[in-house]
Amino acid sequence: MVGYRDEGRSGGYQANGYGAYGAYGGRGGAQAGGGYGGFRGAGGGGGSGGSSWRDKDSQPGENLRRPKWETIKLLEFEKNFYKEHSAVTKRSAMEVETYLKENDVTVRGRDVPRPVLNFSEAGLPDDMLAHVCENFEKPTVIQSISWPVAMSGRDMVGIAQTGSGKTLAFLLPGIVHICQQPPLSRGDGPICLVLCPTRELAQQVQEVAMEYGSRAKLNSTCIYGGASRGPQHRDLTKGIEICIATPGRLIDFLESGATNLRRCTYLVLDEADRMLDMGFEPQIRKIVEQIRPDRQTLMYSATWPKEVRQLADDFLSNNVHVNIGSLELAANHNIRQVVEVVEEFEKHERLLKMLEELTRAGEPKILIFVETKRKADELTRWMRRDGWPTLSIHGDKAQQERDFVLSEFRQGRSPILIATDVAARGLDVDDIKCVINYDYPNCSEDYVHRIGRTGRRDKKGTSYTFFTSANAKSAQDLIKVLEEAGQDVNPKLYNLVEIGKNMRGRGRGRWRSEDDGYRGGGGGGFRGGKRGATDDYGGGSAKRGRFDGGGRGGYGNSNGYNNRGFGGMQNSSNGAASSYSQAGKPQSLLSVAAPVGGTRW
Ligand SMILES: Nc1ncnc2c1ncn2[C@@H]1O[C@H](COP(=O)(O)OP(=O)(O)OP(=O)(O)O)[C@@H](O)[C@H]1O
Ligand SMILES: [Mg+2]
Question: Considering only CA atoms, which residue is closest to atom 27 of ligand 1?
Answer without folding.
Answer: 426
